[in-house]
TrEMBL record:
Pfam family, one: p450
Keyword presence, Oxidoreductase: yes
Entry binding sites for heme: 124
Gene3D superfamilies: Cytochrome P450
Annotated protein name in UniProt: Cytochrome P450
PROSITE patterns: CYTOCHROME_P450
Cofactor(s) needed for function: heme
Length: 197
């Protein structure tokens, strides 16, 4: 959100258009906030959390697309390559939630269950829970605070290096940023239900 302030502003504007200004969005609002969903799907695609999926093994000899795969072979799905497939995602390295929307701003049909959560019988059973949990966090945070660059003592923006951890599951490396409340009413509600109020 620091790197893409226009995306952040559009997501917040959508929230403020649909949800009353003194109410924190709830999961019931999800269907009415297609742009926020598009941001969620793009976050999961852009630096997909499990770039090589979860390892599997073949329980018997198999042939796939002309390739012989012996019993016991380790099989991993290259989700990173899928995330960068230019046919499905033109200009794939660009963070662009709009790619998941139709021309009239609705979510495209074929998004749910996309590759981020794996494939076939062993597809992630937690995907609905995961999506709803991340969506709720995003909606809450964006409805209450503006996220921006942190500033050093001289008032200058502290740049962010776009760096990720390596491994089976990846996430951004720690970085500094700032949070500014944009809704005293919603902030008050959040503080009332959390212990840090
Ligand atoms: C953004 C969050 C998440 C991502 C990106 C994710 C991704 C994945 C992926 C790629 C797999 C492997 C699927 C395959 O082998 O084809 C998987 C499996 C699995 N996930 Fe998730 N997951 C997430 C959250 C969750 C949550 C919240 C739960 C539980 C509540 C969960 C439970 C599981 C379980 C139990 C499996 C193993 C399924 C099996 O092998 O039969 N995941 N997940």
């Amino acid at each position: 959100m620091v790197l893409f302030p226009d995306v952040q502003a559009r997501a917040r504007a959508e929230i403020n258009q649909v949800v009353k200004h003194d109410i924190i969005p709830s999961i019931d609002d999800r269907a009415s906030l297609p742009y926020l969903d598009a941001v969620l799907f793009e976050v999961l695609r852009w630096h997909t959390p499990t770039p090589l999926g979860i390892a599997h093994a073949t329980s018997q000899d198999d042939v796939y697309d002309g390739y012989f795969i012996p019993k016991g072979a380790l099989v991993m799905v290259n989700q990173w390559a899928l995330s960068r497939d230019e046919e499905t995602f033109p200009d794939a390295s660009r963070f662009d939630p709009g790619r998941h929307l139709t021309i009239d701003g609705q979510l495209k049909d074929n998004i749910v269950n996309h590759f981020v959560f794996g494939h076939g019988r062993r597809i992630c059973p937690g995907r609905w829970f995961a999506e709803n949990a991340v969506w709720t966090a995003m909606a809450t945070i964006l409805s209450i605070v503006r996220i921006d660059y942190a500033r050093g003592p001289d008032g200058h923006e502290i740049k962010i290096k776009e760096e990720y951890t390596a491994g089976l599951s990846i996430r951004p490396k720690p970085f500094q940023c700032s949070f500014e409340s944009v809704s005293a009413e919603r902030e008050g509600q959040l503080r009332a239900v959390t212990s840090f109020g």
